[in-house]
Design brief:
mainly alpha, 2 domains, single chain, 217 residues
Length: 217
């Protein structure tokens, strides 16, 4: 099997680290690198095993002959296998280092994404809180304005009632006493018009009708 060029694999690792592809493509590239690393390791292990087998045979022969081992007498294929095994082991180590660097880069990238997601959640939460605070402020302002409008309407109704029925200016008049009695009764029975801003004029009209008092022009 032809060993993948370590330079090409290093370039692929660098592309995985710097590219802006999505998680799926990044994982596919890392799986490809892992497969190549495993293949290279298997080839290196097989070559090393063959070299060890030959070395063992040569060692046994050397002990039998009691002569120094002369590498120049080894078959060319044996020497080439040893060199190839050493080269493949070195390339496998380099590829493993590149894989570790890629894993560190991916872990750093994943951490950065996690921190970015946390920051974005915090920003959204702050924005939500700001909007809720604005809603509360607007609601309070609207309630205050509505209350002020009701007070103003109540005072206007009261002034209009006094203008139509001057008897309301006399606290001891029968009309004022009747208006107060109706108002008290409405409060006790929780009459829906008790909180009406037009209550002064309504009570005045009811009292005037009962007492047969005509309104002033």
């Amino acid at each position: 099997m032809k060993t993948p060029s370590i330079v090409l694999l290093a370039i692929l690792v660098a592309c995985v680290q710097s590219s802006g592809v999505d998680d799926f493509n990044r994982r596919a590239q890392l799986d490809e690198l892992q497969w190549r690393l495993d293949e290279t390791k298997r080839s290196a292990d097989q070559a090393a095993h063959e070299a060890r087998k030959v070395n063992k045979q040569l060692e046994e022969q050397r002990w039998q002959n009691r002569e120094p081992l002369d590498l120049s007498k080894l078959p060319p294929a044996t020497v080439e296998g040893q060199v190839r095994a050493a080269r493949q082991r070195r390339e496998a180590d380099e590829l493993a280092q590149a894989q570790r660097e890629a894993d560190r880069a991916n872990a750093h990238w994943a951490r950065q994404r996690e921190l970015a997601a946390i920051e974005e959640r915090n920003r959204i939460e702050q924005e939500r809180n700001r909007i809720e605070a604005q809603k509360i402020e607007v609601s309070n302002r609207e309630q205050t304005e509505a209350f002020n409008q009701r007070i103003a309407a109540f005072e206007h109704s009261k002034e209009f009632a006094v203008a139509r029925y001057p008897q309301l200016s006399d606290a001891d008049s029968d009309m004022v006493k009747l208006v107060e009695a109706i108002d008290k009764h409405w409060k006790e029975i929780e009459h829906p018009l008790y909180s009406s801003s037009d209550k002064p004029l309504i009570l005045a009209e009811m009292a005037a009708m009962y007492l047969k008092i005509k309104a002033s022009n």
